[in-house]
């Protein structure tokens, strides 16, 4: 990842400033105050922020940009604070339904808050908030029947087979992986031509292959593909009838662009519970089926039953995909670029 800016011909220069992360964990509450290691790391990173603030002030004073774009993340804090002190306009961007801590800290000085969802979802001043969506790879586009057929041909998936695609995140999510692995043998028995591609993450690949080897019959095994890392998510998502995914904002935006029926399992452990809120927003809009990890733990058959219902109801699949697609912004990158250019002027 660190080499991406240096290799991109559209980026002229790369600068580095110190920054620190404030560690807090969703659901831990006051117990975090008793964690000595966390407190020491937060203290150290607080000093990093102060150092970064001085570095950012010197850098911005030297190069004097016309506008600054802050995507979020802890590096935005010293840069945003320095920009405010030097009266340089900056634009924040939030992909999730709950703004990140960094953007909340510097938000009062932002010229505009660019957001992914309808601006009424956010607590920012509405006259300074603009919905732009999430810029995505051009590979993600609305999946027509013809495009779906094309993807299946490339992936050698039978055209008439129902297909489920599972993606748990860059490193996989073991709780989701296990729940899916428990459900798939039952579904393959119920749907003899069901095809499944399961992205499990590199760290979990060997364990999951062993779990499937124990659970699947010889006849079922050829209809499952376990992958450690997937670089062409758009092909697998486009070929699938149903996608099982976490509630990360970018993944949801990608499948919204494709118009896919999604079963969303939010991670309950991330800061501020933003994945839970992302998922609840879509569930309330009728744009996705949401299952919590606690529901899966209480009823091991819950996921299999939900997927069975969806596989049998193609109209429901279509409705979920169409409603999710309503939140897609095909021109998100253009909107964001135009917003930044307006602020620069």
Strand content: 5-15%
CATH class of the largest domain: Alpha Beta
User: Helical percent range?
Assistant: 40-55%
Structural class: alpha/beta
What would CATH call the homologous superfamily of the largest domain?
A: Glycogen Phosphorylase B
N-to-C CA distance: 31 Å
Within the CATH hierarchy, at the fold level, what is the topology of the largest domain?
Rossmann fold
- Listing every helix as H and every strand as E from the N terminus to the C terminus, the arrangement reads HHEHEHEEHEHEHEHEHEHEHHHH
Q: Measured on Cα atoms, how large is the radius of gyration?
A: 22 Å
Short structural summary:
By secondary structure, the protein is an alpha/beta fold. It is built from 14 helices and ten strands.
Can you give a write-up of this model?
With 345 residues, the chain is of the alpha/beta class. It has two domains: 4-134 and 331-344, Glycogen Phosphorylase B (Rossmann fold); 145-325, Glycogen Phosphorylase B (Rossmann fold), CATH 3.40.50.2000. Helix content is 46%, strand content 11%. It contains 14 helices and ten strands. It has helices at residues 4-7, 36-63, 76-86, 101-106, 145-155, 174-190, 205-215, 233-239, 249-258, 274-284, 293-298, 302-312, 314-325, 332-344; strands spanning 68-70, 90-94, 112-115, 129-131, 163-167, 195-199, 224-227, 242-245, 261-264, 289-290. The strands form two sheets. The protein has a six-stranded parallel sheet with strand order 7-6-5-8-9-10, with helices on both faces. A four-stranded parallel sheet has the order 1-2-3-4, sandwiched between helices. The two termini are 31 Å apart.
């Amino acid at each position: 990842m660190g080499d991406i800016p240096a290799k991109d011909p559209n980026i002229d220069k790369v600068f580095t400033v110190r920054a620190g992360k404030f560690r807090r964990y969703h659901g831990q509450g006051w117990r975090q105050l008793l964690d000595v290691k966390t407190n020491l790391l937060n203290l150290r990173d607080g000093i990093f922020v102060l150092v970064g603030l001085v570095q950012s002030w010197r850098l911005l004073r030297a190069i004097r940009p016309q506008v600054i774009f802050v995507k979020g993340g802890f590096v935005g804090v010293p840069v945003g604070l320095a920009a405010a002190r030097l009266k340089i306009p900056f634009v924040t961007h939030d992909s999730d339904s709950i703004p990140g801590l960094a953007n909340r800290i510097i938000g009062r000085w932002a010229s505009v808050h660019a957001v992914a969802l309808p601006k009424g979802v956010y607590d920012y001043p509405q006259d300074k908030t603009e919905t732009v969506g999430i810029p995505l790879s051009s590979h993600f586009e609305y999946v027509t029947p013809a495009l779906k057929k094309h993807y299946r041909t490339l992936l050698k998936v039978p055209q008439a087979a129902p297909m489920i695609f599972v993606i748990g995140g860059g490193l996989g999510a073991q709780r989701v992986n296990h729940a899916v692995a428990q459900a798939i043998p039952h579904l393959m028995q119920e749907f003899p031509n069901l095809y499944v591609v399961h992205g499990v993450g590199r760290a979990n690949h060997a364990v999951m292959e062993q779990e499937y080897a124990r659970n699947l019959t010889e006849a079922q095994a050829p209809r499952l593909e376990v992958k450690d890392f997937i670089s062409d998510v758009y092909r697998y998502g486009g070929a699938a009838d149903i996608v099982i995914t976490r509630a990360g904002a970018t993944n949801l935006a990608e499948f919204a662009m494709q118009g896919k029926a999604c079963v969303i399992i939010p991670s309950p452990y991330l800061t501020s519970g933003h994945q839970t809120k992302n998922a609840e927003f879509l569930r309330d809009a009728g744009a996705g089926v949401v299952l919590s990890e606690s529901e899966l733990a209480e009823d091991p058959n819950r996921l299999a039953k939900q997927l069975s219902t969806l596989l049998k109801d193609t109209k429901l699949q279509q409705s979920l995909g169409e409603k999710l697609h309503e939140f897609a912004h095909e021109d998100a990158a253009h909107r964001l670029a135009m917003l930044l250019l307006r602020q620069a002027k």
